[in-house]
Amino acid sequence: MATLWLLGHQCSLRQPWFEELDKENDEVLLIENWNEKDWKGYHKQKLVLVFSIMRHFKKELEDAGYTVDYRKSTDVAEELEAHINEKQPDTVLVHQPSEEGMCRFIDTWRKKTTASVRIAEEGGFLMDRKEWKNLLPENENWQMDKLYRRFRKDFRVLLTKNGKPVGGKWSYDADNRKKPKKGTTFPEPAWESPDNITRSVIEEVEDGFSKLYGSTEHFAYPVTKKGAEKLLDHFMEHRLHTFGDYQDAMLPGEPFVSHSMLSAAINFSLLDPLDVIRRAEEAYQDEAAPLNAVEGFIRQILGWREYIRGVYLRSMPEYERVNELGHERDLPAFFWTAETNMHCMQDTVQSVVDHAYSHHIQRLMVLGNFATTAGIEPKQVSDWFNEMYIDALDWVVLPNVLGMALYADGGKMSTKPYVSSGNYIQKMSHYCRDCAYSVNEKYGENACPFHPLYWDFLERHEERFRDNPRMKVIYKHLDNRSSEDEKKQQETIDLVWKRMKEGTL
Ligand code: FAD
Ligand code: SF4
């Protein structure tokens, strides 16, 4: 008899070991981890998602004729051994996860256990782990675009019969920067109302982990393959067509805009990424969505998602400690409470508190921009993202946060840091007109804090960035300031640090 031990994000019949599993004799083992220490600092919705997916998958497996040993435990390693002692399996089958920490856990357990262990790579990605060594060679620049074009060809996605990109261009990114008129609304994603299983998980989490962050009130993420397919179908039919145009737009009180909300469903194995890509391609062929939307959406999954995992696999374990810019400040309390006068930060963090989610450009150009320019310690920022986001797993958080958002790896993934003054946020959002600060004021009490933070960042890291070809113009502006402006700039940044310290920013 064999036991297949599945982790919480691997609950899918498409995981490779299912091909060898014998329903009559073998068992599936699922263990809910109720160890408070492991969940410290997490958003409650994350626990609800994981436990509810696991409990629904147990039911799906039993309905399909599998035997499931389902356990709740405060010590996963002990529970695993308890299962082995009770059931005496000949072999324990495991899928190797992408996360370094989980791999270490499996390695340690494997050395101690009496059971024979076989490991296969987990599903859920287009590229195998072993391929990344060639795809991201040691001494080359790691560019997403190059790989994306290659994957388009390899998987024949949005290609003409002659192997050229449909529409003549590989990327329509430049078309995807529109700002909707104020008052524009977008259809809500096809959320799921929590069923009995999810409701009881919510009660248990509220009971057992009452001190964790966030609220379970709005929990509506799919927890089954069927629910995820409903969310996907609805997105394809009603929301994809505006995905391209408004991909970078930010609207107060509109946390989802035209984003798919599929990241958790994909990362937790409810949906297969290639199926999602094919569905978007069909939407283009059926004329349900324009090319800029479809190509933009496909690039996120076929390009960015795969590339990000590749960067993680090629850079760990050193990556988790990177801090090239030497940033040491603490993350301000408003990252958990949303209590700040900066409207863009307030609305973005509120979305995290309510939905364990904010969309990409909020993560990058509001939260990441703030954390980089304010010099927050990278580890604190990546821990916060790992703990607070519904779709977070270490492999996707670290390159996105440390590499893309914070430039903490010294530019492995981007030629310049994603930092800006308040002007970018004003251009892409409707936040500034309802903010306590003024985006039109550079200095003084009312100045938008992103202005002094940005200038201060440039000055602090002048040696590193002055000769960067993409930043030369910005340094020219800095050089042209009068000494009077420099003095006002210094007073304004001091005010920002003071307010951050007092908790009044
Ligand atoms: P959409 O905007 O609809 O995009 C479609 C899909 O593309 C997503 O569902 C996702 O599967 C994929 N995708 C898009 N961009 C990326 C990317 N950069 N990396 C990986 N996949 C991508 N994504 C996560 O899945 N988990 C995270 O914890 C996470 N943390 C992030 C932290 C920061 C600082 C930044 C800048 C990005 C992060 N991302 C993360 C990437 C991206 O922001 C999210 O995938 C996206 O916002 C999820 O929302 P959505 O499903 O509505 O995506
Ligand atoms: Fe954000 Fe500055 Fe605009 Fe306020 S004025 S919303 S702080 S960018």
Explain this structure:
- This is Cryptochrome/photolyase family protein.
- It holds the Pfam family DPRP.
- It comes from Alkalicoccus urumqiensis (Bacillus urumqiensis).
- Residues 170-193 are annotated as: Disordered.
- GO terms for molecular function: lyase activity.
- The chain has 505 residues and is of the alpha/beta class.
- The protein folds into three domains: 2-121, HUPs (Rossmann fold), CATH 3.40.50.620; 129-305, Serine Threonine Protein Phosphatase 5, Tetratricopeptide repeat, CATH 1.25.40.80; 334-502, Orthogonal Bundle (DNA Cyclobutane Dipyrimidine Photolyase, subunit A, domain 3), CATH 1.10.579.10.
- It is built from 21 helices and five strands.
- It has helices at residues 36-39, 44-63, 76-87, 100-112, 132-135, 144-154, 196-208, 225-239, 263-267, 273-285, 291-315, 334-337, 343-355, 360-373, 378-388, 394-405, 422-428, 450-460, 462-465, 472-479, 483-502, and strands at 2-6, 27-33, 67-73, 91-96, 116-121.
- Strands 3-2-1-4-5 form a five-stranded parallel beta sheet, sandwiched between helices.
- α2 (44-63) runs antiparallel to α7 (196-208), α6 (144-154) crosses α11 (291-315) and α11 (291-315) crosses α16 (394-405).
- The protein is globular and about 80 Å long.
- The protein starts with a strand and ends with a helix.
- The model has no long low-confidence stretch (mean pLDDT 96).
- Iron/sulfur cluster binds at residues 342-344, 422, 425-426, 431-432, 435, 437, 439, 448-450.
